[in-house]
Write a structure and sequence with these properties.
single chain; 512 residues; alpha+beta; Flavocytochrome C3, Chain A, domain 1; Methane Monooxygenase Hydroxylase, Chain G, domain 1; seven-stranded mixed beta sheet; 12 helices; NadB; Succ_DH/fumarate_Rdtase_cat_sf
């Protein structure tokens, strides 16, 4: 048990995370004249999902009727359980927020939609479509134009709070624990795709923010909804596909050479949950580029073009992978959570996408809510004092001393059972089997002395998040959006609502 912590001092706004959401929140908070510090396990600007994304932003054009249509598409895709107050903010502020991001990142190029003879922006990306070209200019701005401090290589372990008001955080680095106090804290830790053996996520996305929120009794929702990205080549080389290629002649075929998405109006561009389930049914899926516009491919998807040119005559096997958590910390439109002084933004937050996320909206969400949260966290810090309270953290008592035990076997067992039993298609039996394995793993790791504390903390968080996903899945007795349970294969109106963990840690269903 750890009983020693080192003091890292005080800060006005503490931001936990190092990706796009965290950076945009930090820039905005700093502009309000407060002292800001960012904490990241990896290098800031080089961590999380944004840096490996396709840098695509989709948003509603600044035209009233089209905004309403865009909102309806978001809610329909989310199967009508989205938090409409968050959807309203995303739709209303999306275009302007991406335009403001383009003032920092000159790499963003816009596309337009013509409505009644006028042109409106509705899409933006970098060229080439690579997340590093999105994140690095923002990082440069952060370093050159702000006074934000970086704590890189530090892992957020838990929150410090007093009477449901945040006071700071416990951090880990080099097998040591540290305390940093703050007037306000922003959770921007990203998702938790690493709980699955097959994922598009980077290896730092271990669900830390979800686990921290749960331990602090911060309200969480929709954890049963995990999106499985259906556009990833796994052979001859791993590579994520930009879906736009299917508008230019690319097709998906099964092992018999049949285009299995022909029965759907949008074919390969159907909602990701539908496409992932169809691919699961067909067991093997292949990308056919024979009819694709090669000029488009070279200009818009140069990496894929090079793979195609270097592997002519080969089959391109494609499979869905764990990609995005629709669920997460319950946030209000101003970024507030159920704990005073604690704000959240990015994938760690839940509610906006409902049961399934439309492609291109995740990065727009960061552009919208990152600055909103940064501003409101700064305003909270200006109005409040740092709470001086003794550190009485229950989780500290569970953290083991350092020893010699390796954790890779435990991690592999967890990720395997989550992929096989809590993946694209689930059942009550598969969920119960997974729950048993996950509970056993928790008991096992609580009795060992690991050779690396960060690895133990990440594994503990992954187990906590896995339990949240399993429990929420068992609670929902229907299929909706990205969640498919073969024992309850259809949607039911009585389940039109969200499952949440409230402030006392209980599971509740909140009907729309």
């Amino acid at each position: 048990m750890y009983n020693k912590t080192k003091n890292l001092g005080y800060v006005d706004v503490l931001i936990l995370g190092g990706g796009m959401a965290a950076m945009l929140a930090a820039i905005e908070a700093d502009s309000n004249g407060v002292d800001v510090c960012m904490v990241s396990k990896k290098k800031i600007g080089r961590s999380g999902a944004s840096v490996v994304s396709k840098a695509v932003h989709r948003f509603a054009p600044q035209e009233k009727q089209d905004k309403q249509s865009y909102k309806q598409n978001l809610i329909s895709s989310g199967r009508y359980i989205n938090d409409t107050s968050l959807v309203d903010v995303l739709v209303e502020k999306g275009a302007k927020s991406v335009e403001e991001l383009a003032l920092i990142n000159k790499n963003l190029n816009f596309k337009y939609k013509t409505i009644k003879g006028d042109k409106y922006k509705n899409f933006a990306t970098t060229k080439p479509k690579q997340g590093k070209h999105l994140c690095h200019p923002v990082l440069k701005h952060l370093i050159r134009k702000t006074g934000v401090r970086f704590l890189e290589g530090y892992m957020a372990v838990d929150l410090i709070s007093h009477k449901n008001k945040v006071c700071g955080a416990i951090l880990e680095k080099g097998n040591e624990l540290f305390i940093i106090r703050a007037k306000s804290v922003v959770l921007a830790t990203g998702g938790g795709g690493k709980i699955y053996s097959e994922t598009s996520n980077t290896n730092d996305l271990t669900g830390d923010g979800y686990a921290i929120a749960k331990r602090s009794n911060v309200s969480i929702r929709d954890m049963e909804f995990v999106q499985f990205y259906p556009y990833r080549i796994c052979e001859p080389k791993e590579h994520d596909i930009f879906p736009g290629i299917f508008e230019k002649g690319a097709k998906l075929l099964n092992k018999n050479g049949e285009r299995f998405m022909n029965k759907y109006p949008k074919r390969e561009l159907e909602n990701r949950d539908i496409l992932a389930k169809e691919m699961f049914k067909h067991a093997e899926s292949y990308l056919d580029l024979s009819g694709c516009d090669l000029t488009y491919l070279q200009e818009e998807c140069n990496d894929l073009y090079n793979i195609f040119m270097n592997n002519k005559g080969r089959k391109y096997k494609i499979k869905p992978v764990a990609h995005y958590f629709m669920g997460g910390v319950i946030q209000k439109p101003d970024g507030k959570t159920s704990m005073k002084g604690l704000f959240s933004c990015g994938e760690v937050s839940g509610g906006i996408h409902g049961a399934n996320r439309l492609g291109g909206n995740a990065l727009t969400e960061l552009a919208v809510f990152g600055p909103i949260v940064g501003q409101n966290a700064a305003h909270f810090a200006i109005k409040n004092q740092i709470q001086s309270t003794d550190i009485r953290n229950i989780f500290l008592k569970q953290i083991p001393d350092i020893g010699k035990s390796h954790l890779l076997n435990f991690e592999n067992r967890l990720r395997k059972v989550m992929w096989e039993n809590v993946g694209i298609v689930r059942s009550m039996t598969s969920l119960s089997e997974a729950e048993s394995v996950v509970n056993d793993l928790l008991l096992e790791i609580e009795t060992i002395k690991p050779n690396n504390l960060k690895n133990w903390l990440e594994l503990y968080n992954m187990i906590e998040v896995s339990k949240l996903v399993i429990k929420s899945s068992k609670y929902r007795r229907e299929s909706r959006g990205s969640y498919y349970n073969e024992d309850f294969p259809s949607e039911k109106d009585i389940w039109l609502g969200h499952i949440s963990y409230n402030n006392n840690g209980n599971l509740n269903f909140v009907k729309n």
